[in-house]
Write a structure and sequence with these properties.
Low-confidence stretches: 141-145
Strand content: under 5%
Shape: rod-shaped
Mean pLDDT: 84
Distance between the termini: 62 Å
Structural class: mainly alpha
Number of strands: 0
Largest sheet: none
Order of helices and strands: HHHHH
Length: 145
């Protein structure tokens, strides 16, 4: 039968303020100062696997950054679409009533083709901005803001 691994002792010197913080935390949690330091070091050396408040804060910060980026990108997309629609409406003349019915039929057919093409494109998982790169952009740089 194996004996449990014995912990090894290490002597460290701490700044008085840090020592007080460790002591206060140990008293607050009713644990030894050694366990408080061991837990802090464990979280420090394996930040992705940490389960403490610091790890949770890091994860929430990452989520917040992603949401901020998503909000910014969505705003850019909506503004781009609005500008395109405005430009299209200004530049496209109204059709005479005699050819409006034929234009509507052709528009419905073209819209159906657009929806099919969009579905195929989305099924590939690639996005348009991945295919559009400035000629001088380094590999991996999509040129998107």
């Amino acid at each position: 039968m194996k004996r449990p691994r014995k912990k090894q002792q290490m002597t460290v010197y701490l700044d008085p303020d840090l020592f007080k913080a460790v002591s206060d935390m140990a008293i607050h949690r009713r644990q030894s100062g050694s366990l408080v330091v061991e837990t802090a070091l464990s979280v420090f050396f394996s930040p992705e696997e940490g389960t403490g408040q610091a790890a949770l804060t890091r994860r929430l910060d990452r989520v917040d950054k992603r949401l901020s980026r998503l909000e910014r990108d969505t705003g850019i997309t909506v503004e781009t679409l609005a500008q395109f629609i405005r430009f299209w409406m200004i530049m496209t003349p109204a059709l005479p009533e005699s050819s409006a019915a034929a234009a509507r039929a052709q528009a419905a057919e073209r819209y159906g083709g657009f929806i099919e093409a969009l579905g195929r494109r989305l099924a590939t998982g690639r996005r348009l901005h991945e295919d559009i790169q400035p000629p001088d952009a380094p590999s991996g740089d999509t040129g998107v803001l």
